[in-house]
Records
---
Amino acid sequence: MRSFLSLLVLVPALCIGPAVQAWTLQGQVVSVVSGDTLRIRDERKVQHTVRLAGVDAPEKFQAYGQRSLDSLRELAFQRYVTVEGVGSGSPRVGRVRVEGRDISMEQLQLGAVWYDRSRAQSLPETERQAYAEAQADAKLRRVGLWRDKQPIPPWEYRAGRRK
């Protein structure tokens, strides 16, 4: 009977799976990989690749790809950042802040990236809404990649290259 009760407790716990783990990382940006990806060196001199939560940047050879990278470099390169994320994986996906400023939001306001719902799951609903509004405003003002009449989202560009 005791082993049966133990199973009743153990089986649901195993089915739930590992809890989603929140994490925080602080360090200096040592490299800007793309308009939405950074390499950060922490205080132990370990490098971490981090993708900005909620956004997707144009690919390197896509229209506006280099400008998006340059924009992120200007905002974050060699600066100290705090990153908050949820879950695991590589690269990590998190909310990156420089001096309290949300870098994803700044990239959106500059028209350097697209808001991407699939990369915004860990963000609170209010921030997801603010990101969508920032993109709509940049589009309305025709700044950055929104100067093009029909900019191609990076996920469509990548899908086209795979065909």
---
Amino acid sequence: MRKIIENYSVLPKDLFKRIFVTFLFGYLPLAILHITLNVAGIIPVNFNNKQVYGLEGILIIILFIPFVVLLITFFVWLYFIFGNLIIRILKRVFYE
């Protein structure tokens, strides 16, 4: 158990950037699928309580991708920081 706590109590460098880039590339296939279905007229983009299709829908999807990824990244980063804090507390209590 001590080895696990020692290994994972160190905060990685550039954690937020790494999580953001990973989620961005993970979200892109879903965005491409949504764009395809939007152009085909199957799934609309809801913007200001209005269903949008076509080029305007594509533009809205592309503009919202960084915003959605940023929100997801922020909350996962907070969750990671909280877990790292708990590990550091356990390290201080039991191993120092």
---
Amino acid sequence: MMNKTLLRWLLPSLAWLLLSTDMIGQVARYQVGVCDWMVLKRQKLGQFALAHELGCDGVELDMGGLGQRELWDNKLRDAAEAAHFKRVADSLGVTIGAVAMSGFYAQDLKQRDNYMTLVTDCFDTMDRLGGVSVAFLPLGGCGNDWSTDKAKRKQVVARLHDIGEAALARGKRVGIDTPFDAKGNLKLLKEVKSDGIAIFYKFQTALENGSDIAADLQRLGAKNICAIHASNTDGVWLRNDSTIDMPRIRQTLDRMGWQGWLFVERSRDTSMVRNVKMNYGSNVHYLKSVFNAYPAPAVALDSAGRPADYVETIVKRSQKATDELGITWTPVGQTVLNIICNRYFELNDIYAERDSLKKTDKRLAEALCDSRLYRSHFAFDTQLSHYLKPAQIETVKDVMTYHVVKVTYDAQCDMIPTLTDEEKEQIMAWLKEARELAIDAESSKKKHEVFGKYKGRINNYLSARGYDLVKEREAWYKRLNEK
């Protein structure tokens, strides 16, 4: 019989797989991924677990750094290492959608006489990874003058032609990132004269050119777009970016008959630019919700029949916990969010029933309330344990009780620096016990009242241990004032 823990892990993945295919089993028209070098996982195995956690269909894997090296810093040149990468990706249901030569963001294609060696290395790596068909080649390192300098442009065009023909011979296509709008890209592709070269379309470039993304895509045409970097420069998340009309872009691509990969490169919130999971989780979630069926949470939100403004308030309150865990915009995070929301809803229902019964039988009302709270308390822990580690569950409970445990414990330790380890352990034990009761309380006031009782118990305990709390508090205030 299959291990229950393994089954719980596999079921969301199986549901996700079904959601990402249509009724006749074909791969979804639009697939969403992240660039491994942007999520700080360049050629690292951890990119696949991260992509899975974020809800991605796949990744755009990079060839490695270039800099002053003769060749890519590419550990996947080793067939055994590449095979290992492929096995890990497959085990998590993560596809390698494209392989990037991001080093050419800074390196000049015109100055690299071994450019075909570098490109061939990329093609070989794509084959080792299971026959990836799309490569990404940015032209940022060529500078800005090659587009108008005839000699330099001719050199770039000639090299792109060679690369395109080599790609065709290997059954691949190289997507280039240029500084042009659709008109400029069509002109360049006509000069290159190779079906092995296409445009790896980039929302950021279109916006920097002042182009309307949907109109620019339409003009460029589906056959000339091999993949899309569906993000803007850093600033805000895609869902908050007023310069990108994502539903209209989706409608345009539908009309064009285009299908393929949309990779998130940037669009990080600059107020939390280093928070990989929140930034890329949010952007992947948004793209999946617009372009593809996002996996439904394993636990549905029990919002039916509840006022919309009340539900919105509870969702925002609950999201503070998943935000602190950094999982809000992930499939697991959405499920955990619903579990927390439903817990608040359940508490509201329990206390509403109690208040109604009190009118006829106060003792029965309290007894039924206690019974339901007891079952609800342990059911909440059990539900969370399916998706979170013990330390993460502690965080959820701390957020739901306003971090009173930490605030109170830190204050006690700061006020009385001479506390023994035994005394600290006792204080923490009581505070956590208080938290278990407070998490069932019906209001913020009641939660603080629970902690208040336990703070009194702690004070009595410390007084019995010989501490003069009045003097300790006065000395503490004095130290604080001096700081």
---
Amino acid sequence: MENIFRNPNGKPINIPQPIRNDGAGGPDWGPRDVLRDLENPDMFVPPATDSGLLPNLKFSFSDTHMKLNHGGWSREVTVLELPIAKTLAGVNMYLTPGGVRELHWHQQAEWAYMIRGSARVTAIDQNGRNFIADIDPGDLWYFPAGLPHSIQGLAEGCEFLLVFDNGSFSEMNTLSISDWLAHTPKDVLSANFGISEDAFAQLPDEQVYIFQAPVPGSLENQRVDSPYGTVPLSFKHRLLAQTPLITPGGSVRIVDSSNFPISKTIAAALVEIKPGGMREMHWHPNQDEWQYYLTGQGRMTVFAGNGTARTFNYRAGDVGYVPFAYGHYIQNTGTETLWFLEMFGCDRFEDISLNQWMALTPKELVEENLHVGPELLHALRKEKWPVVKYRDQTP
């Protein structure tokens, strides 16, 4: 068989084979999905240090079902798609200019990151205090469980990521205003609002979910004053406006209840890894980690103890997952900057740096434990660097 394959653009490429440079493995004669193998080089030819069994820690939004509506689309990754991800679930959504995710609420808290474009969000709390704001790229919003809200695309439309604090959540099972009214007798609606039944003659007969509407006017023109005032804690946070922690390999911006007080059940970090950079070896002592890759490509190795480690490849649009306290690192394997979000179902971001831990432990103990010498001991850092530079040593 010819060892040449052409990609969708007609460019010839070599067909990868599951043979490691130490001679392990052998040719795969097919049938096979060559493009898929090219996307997962470290799963197709795992590093020699990979060992043991781990559940799948990767799922792509490209492999999900797309729900299309007039006004936008949505798709989700829940425990149905990624069974290990029990703490958080995610929805990727697009709204056209004027497209509306209708008035609704959830049994789960909603955390969101605006990827492109802008949207107007509205909400109220249990005391009748309202919130109306425009969300731009790099901004977040957070709505506590049970609080009603809406999202509408502005002049450019918008695409965003929604994260919910329960892995079993499904966007298809939200509580929507149109759905409730469609399943309420007209005489009850008449009594509730104090108007005639005829006023409800044109109500939708099922859940609207997403619908097309005109692009809204200015924020000032849509202002609604509540006699109870506005919400005391803002539902919006400008993550990209934060000053990042910059290290030689990239940067990180951390957002949790310490700087976004309303966000009580989801904490996050926006991580930038430059080409040749690496999210350092670390683990999280308080929660599982749910990841969303925004740009670039990388690989993550997860260490589960008892001789178990496995490497996964990720690219823009993928979801990754790391169980509680498992050690891991993420390398940028591409030529462009790798940006991703790491999220946690808790109120505070916490991580433990392997480098810092070793640096703050007596040197004699580290030396005896690992049989290492001065080169490593003198290189250890007492300050945490979430992203470092590395020399590419591909297995």
